[in-house]
Amino acid sequence: MSIVLALAASLSWGVAAYVGPLQGRRIGIWPVLFWSQVFGLIILLAPTLAVARLPSDSSLVWALPAAAAATIGLATYYKGVSVGAMSVVAPIAGASAAIPVIYGLAIGDPTTALRLVGLVVAIIGVVLVSTERRSGARRVAAGVGLALIAALSLGLYFPPMHAAGRAGFWWAATIYRVATVSFIFVAIRIRKADFSIARRDLPLVAAIGCGDTLGVLLFAAASQHGLVSVTSVLASLYPVVTVLLAAFLLRERLGNLQRLGILFALGGAALIAAG
Predict the structure, then answer these.
(1) Domain range spanning residue 23?
(2) d(CA 160, CA 61)
(3) Which end of the chain is more exposed for a tag (fewer CB within 10 A), N or C?
(4) 20 near 212, Cβ under 8 Å?
(5) Domain assignment present for 205
(6) Over the stretch 60-99, which tens digit does the pLDDT of each residue have?
(7) Is residue 28 in a domain?
């Protein structure tokens, strides 16, 4: 069941990771981030209060550092997609899977040679997909630096959220969402950014929030039964969905080495999960 839930989380996140940055390009990153998180919180509050009692387990507080890491990761991912190709930025961000695997090894999660091979393959993929050819010379592709920050931040989301989810997934997801709304609001006020949004854009932004929140809830539920190094990697397969949507709907064109890099990055994540 934990494998099914984690894969479902990757599907939900993958769609949100495609639609969200596209709307961020059109109406601005901060309005999309803030209002999608607000709608996500709204849909969580009623069922959480109705079906779940607040657990006494103090592990729920781990949802707060998870929210801080995810806020940074989402903001840099959205910014990365605004300046670079989604099919480049998304696989690099998906390399975040390496962090929970390393954490799992450190705390004694069982591992296999196949999982270690997957880590190496994923790293090679990130290197390949990070370059592009311009005027006969190779250079770092646009958005790669931001994608690497997103990968680190999103990777740091998984271990604490896994711990919080084991304490109670409904409340873990709700506390996490309250925190992300708060952190994004603080960032907006510090930057004095405009986060107003037209009424006509609200339904799509609400759908983005629902997709992202469903992924959070599914991952928190998967955490109750699965190892952090397995559930996190399976949930990190969301770039597969994002890249496929970008290829078929946006017709993004990549160099041969970048295509190979995408296969390595996604294949490495698959090997880690299979291990």
Answers:
(1) 2-106+140-244
(2) 9
(3) N
(4) yes
(5) yes
(6) 999 999 999 999 999 999 888 888 777 778 778 877 878 8
(7) yes
Non-local (6+) Cβ contacts of 124 within 8 A are 261, 264, 268
Give the span between the Cα atoms of 58 and 54, in whole angstroms: 11
C-alpha of 264 from chain center: 19
Predicted pLDDT of residue 259: 78
Paired with 131 in beta bridges are: 140
Structure tokens at 12: 């939900």
The terminus-to-terminus CA distance of the chain in angstroms comes to 17
Whether pTM exceeds 0.90: no
Q: What DSSP string describes the chain?
A: -HHHHHHHHHHHHHHHHHHHHHHHHHH-HHHHHHHHHHHHHHHHHHHHHHH-PPP--GGGGGHHHHHHHHHHHHHHHHHHHHHS-HHHHHHHHHGGGHHHHHHHHHTT----HHHHHHHHHHHHHHHHHTEEEETTEEEEPTTHHHHHHHHHHHHHHHHHHHHHHHH-HHHHHHHHHHHHHHHHHHHHHHHT------GGGHHHHHHHHHHHHHHHHHHHHHTTTS-HHHHHHHHTTHHHHHHHHIIIII-----HHHHHHHHHHHHHHHHHHH-
C-alpha to C-alpha distance for 105 and 108, rounded to whole angstroms: 5
Domain membership of residue 8 (yes or no) is yes
Q: How many domains does the chain have?
A: 1
149 is written with which tokens?
């920050």
Higher-confidence residue of 129 and 259: namely 259
Of residues 217, 183, 221, the one with CA closest to residue 13 = 217
